[in-house]
Amino acid sequence: MKLSSREAEGYFAKPDASRTGLLIYGGDAMRVALKRQQVIAALLGPNGEEEMRLARMAGGDLRKDPAQLMDAIKAVGFFPGPRVAFVEDCPELSAPAVLAALEDWEPGDAQVVVTAGQLKPTSKLRKAFETHPNAYAVGVYDNPPSRAEIERMLAQAGIRDVSPEPMSLLADLARDLGPGDFAQLLEKLALYKLNDSAPLGLEDIAACAPRSTEAGLDDLLNAVAEGKLASVDPLLRRLQSQGTNATGLCIAAARHFRTLYACATDPGGPGQGINRLRPPVYGQRRDRILGQAQAWDARRLENALTVLTDTDLALRSAGRSAPQMPLVERAMIRLAMLARPR
């Protein structure tokens, strides 16, 4: 049977131990792995692996030794409780072994949990689970976690007192970060709030959120937006030595100045405009962006965005002849000069 995304979320939290099996497939291996971890932990409990109720095998090995899956399903464990035969990253060539195991499965056997990459609707493996009367197939797509899923992950990490503003920030971070990085963030938050009964605050998230790998880039953009002309060239040289390319610099600068433009042109002023930014900014970065938005007016910001658009087009032009980094350097100098008070 095929489970929709909404149905799958409930099933992953409370799987049915009497089912024959479950197929989890998708293009993002990390998302698939996280769902697999969740459902196996819910099936076996916290001590399932220690009690040897989990048999793990690589999907590629089933082509050479298809009997190992059947042996794992039929094996009798030393400890009572549900058992799982887990087939990791199963290719289509190993489908016959999985199909044979599904056909011979009987009540009391270990449940078959299979993970795979992106599968076409015509895939034998996918069709076998979707048409099986006692098994499920779930496609995991590259969507950010829902609010309910974030709440479940927080509760699992031991964090339960979360007000709307921190929850909104976590939802924004879940969209920006990969699934593995977001899971690590929640683990860090759980350790950070250990023995701390106070509600989760924005400052707690700021303390644990991943530091930007673009710290040097932020320094450059701040220098440009604040008119610190003398700092532009040294920062550009440092970024270039680190391997930052010209196109990436231009895209980041355009994103930064669009943020300033959104704040500066808000009907309620920059103070209200910065509150409407998504994802929100906080801490020292918020103060800095607000100061920059107040220093620039809409007309100069429009000129700055025009400069960056022209530079981006020049960088992407098929017939370009000028070196790329000098084009960006010239644009940054022009912006820094625009930032200076007249």
From TrEMBL:
Superkingdom, taxonomy of origin: Bacteria
For this protein, the Enzyme Commission number is 2.7.7.7
> Which UniProt keywords are given for this protein, alphabetically ordered?
DNA replication, DNA-directed DNA polymerase, Nucleotidyltransferase, Transferase
Q: Name one GO molecular function term.
A: DNA binding
Q: Which reaction does it catalyse?
A: DNA(n) + a 2'-deoxyribonucleoside 5'-triphosphate = DNA(n+1) + diphosphate
> Do you know which Gene3D superfamilies this protein is assigned to?
1.20.272.10, P-loop containing nucleotide triphosphate hydrolases
Q: Name one GO biological process term.
A: DNA-templated DNA replication
Which InterPro entries does the UniProt entry name for this protein?
DNA_pol3_clamp-load_cplx_C, DNA_polIII_delta, P-loop_NTPase
Q: Name one GO cellular component term.
A: DNA polymerase III complex
Transferase among keywords = yes
Record keywords: Phosphoprotein included? no
Q: Which PANTHER family match?
A: DNA POLYMERASE III SUBUNIT DELTA
Q: Which family does it belong to?
A: Belongs to the DNA polymerase HolA subunit family.
Q: What is this protein called?
A: DNA-directed DNA polymerase
Q: Which organism does this record belong to? A: Ruegeria marina
Taxonomic classification: Bacteria, Pseudomonadati, Pseudomonadota, Alphaproteobacteria, Rhodobacterales
